[in-house]
Known about the structure:
Blueprint: H1 2-21, H2 40-43, E1 55-60, H3 61-66, E2 82-84, E3 95-97, E4 100-101, E5 108-110, E6 113-115, E7 126-133, E8 147-153, E9 161-169, E10 173-184, E11 190-201, E12 210-224, E13 227-240, E14 274-288, E15 294-313, E16 338-366, E17 369-385, E18 390-398, E19 416-432, E20 437-454, E21 461-479, E22 482-493, E23 513-525, E24 529-547, E25 555-576, E26 579-593, E27 611-622, E28 625-634, E29 637-638, E30 646-647, E31 650-663, E32 666-675, E33 683-685, E34 688-689, E35 692-693, E36 696-697, E37 702-710
Parallel strand pairs: 5-8
Antiparallel strand pairs: 1-7, 2-3, 3-4, 5-6, 7-8, 9-10, 9-37, 10-11, 11-12, 12-13, 13-14, 14-15, 15-16, 16-17, 16-18, 17-19, 19-20, 20-21, 21-22, 22-23, 23-24, 24-25, 25-26, 26-27, 27-28, 28-31, 29-30, 31-32, 32-37, 33-36, 34-35
Amino acid sequence: xxxxxxSLLGAATALLATSLASAQTLPQVSVTGKAVEAAPGLSxxxxxxxxxxxxxxxxxxxxLADLGIDQLSGITKLDASVSDSYNAVGxxxxxxxxxxxxxxxxxxxxDGLPINGETSLSxxxxxxxxxxxxxxxxxxGTSAPAGLVNxxxxxxxxxxxxxxxxxxxxxxxxxxxxDHSQRFGANREFGLxxxxxxxxxxxxxxxxxxxxxxxAVAADWRLSADxxxxxxxxxxxxxxxxxxxxSLLGNTLPDPKRIDPNLNLNNQPxxxxxxxxxxxxxLRVQQKLAGDWRAQAHLGIQRLxxxxxxxxxxxxxxxxxxSFTGVYYCDRYGPDGRFDLYDYRSENEHRDTTALxxxxxxxxxxxxxxxxxxxxxxxxxxxxxxxRQAYNFAGIGNxxxxxxxxxxxxxxxxxxxxDERSNELYLRDRVALGADTSAWxxxxxxxxxxxxxxxxxTSPTDYRQGFTTPWVAVSHAIASDxxxxxxxxxxxxxxxxxxxxxxxxxxxxxxxxxxxxxxxxLKTGTQRVEGALTVFDIRHPLWRDxxxxxxxxxxxxxxxxxxxxxxxxxxxxxxxxxxxxxxxASRLRARREGSSDASLNGLVPPNVPQTTLKAQLRQDLLxxxxxxxxxxxxxxxxxxxxxxxxxxxxxxxxxxxxxxQGVGNQTWIWRAGVDNLxxxxxxxxxxxxxxxxxxxxxxxxxxxTSLEIRL
Length: 711
């Protein structure tokens, strides 16, 4: 597949270059809003998107609605740099950016404040989902490399508005929502926005019926022209059985055409739903100061409660209580389709996050140059509290889904309670070196304190660490609407060796490992064309267990080599009268390098497609009627770290219709779509999780429809 996928990337890049080159000669068109723009909440700078020396996108709620996206994992349809990372129905979303897994504990934000993403995050009251692609050390104290994701909360609008939405998805899912915004007061200084959504969940995937609901309120008070106070609260709930993955059958990749994509292996009579109960609240005060300076204080609170339960398949004959057949399969299922089935239950999990950010920004003159400065501090605290858990062998399952076993719910295993306190000071500066040239600086100093202990009081760890992560860039406007830039930045991750007897350095904090990214880019942004061409190089240190680890004091957990991801990305958002095209392409070379074990060097990380192309075309057919066509292509990947089993590439086509009509003073928007139009059978992703290979199939052809009424 190398030649076709390379030609796809070349075609996408050529399309971008041709479109941008002709941008100045296109006829004038009227465009309402912007479909894609950089994320100021993540970048930390107030400059227009096309003038920022970084790659970030903002996916509006309307764009997500057109594609029927109601889960964070759905954004993998839209950007070539974003892909799946163990995305199972009924569970929390997990993403890769530029080939690296985002850490759900550290790489997610809500209106710019850190949150924990180990839950189902509702999009019902979100105005947009923002994705920063690239080194995030300037924005986050600790995080996995290659990006951040930010959820933008819907706030009261300038004009009163009410939107009602009804939707249905093939097989039985029905959903309804209300979005109401209104202003009050003699000068309309008070604003209120209420979002209520509920759904009966019945996907085409069998044995996953459930329900979800969201109630959210956002208010603001414009005390004066200089002062704005904003407050919001959200309560969301989801109860739904999760999806078990398929796996390799011995040393064979099963034929996806012979696998029922609607079969859920988590189908035991004792299967219970995963339950997520989430509470979020925030208070933000923005104040104009003298001399064009502004100050902001932003407090965010997140309280998560989870019942995590699953009939979990893992290997074959890897448990002393299973029926041993003579061959161990600890990282995949057996050649005959059998696997060890475990009763997993971890109930009443609590994950609490509190964050306070205080900052000030404005211009200053230093050494004859204008500086646009932001200085601030972020203090955050996380507390995870858990109970004992069940992870008990329950019998032998099979990939036909016909095996029935008895439950084993006894709470036989310990869990781990965690605490983290982080204090961060940051500075951002844009220096105008000339009319067309700017220098950019970001600097963040972090002090953290992390503790953990097993629920029985054993294996405690406690460590403190401090580090500074810089970011620098230079940009130059080579034409009125063209920007060239180069940037370099660091990110950091912190880890402690598990306090287990097999490690000679048990419980010790490892040196903070800094990832480094270099990026060179070319951007443009006009009313009709937005686009970018980017080349990047990321080096990310890796940890590895060195030694046998089979008896006490037999191995050491330490840094060993790094992952190096180099790539080129092209994206274009083209707008013309009556339509447009949003397309992106990525060619990634991800490799393991520098390990003390030479056999590991040169290997490609599992579940990382090397070539990706995604495009969404829209075109008006008749007044009010628009056709939409989506193309998703992901190249081949590997199912295991040793690269012994490749997973073929796949291509999917989606289609939809959007009809807008006026009914009195109302606007009705009808949407109808079909995902996986040709009913393509393939392995969508091959995540390597818990030292085990899993496979998730493409969802089958699925029809959806909705009606949105704007009052």
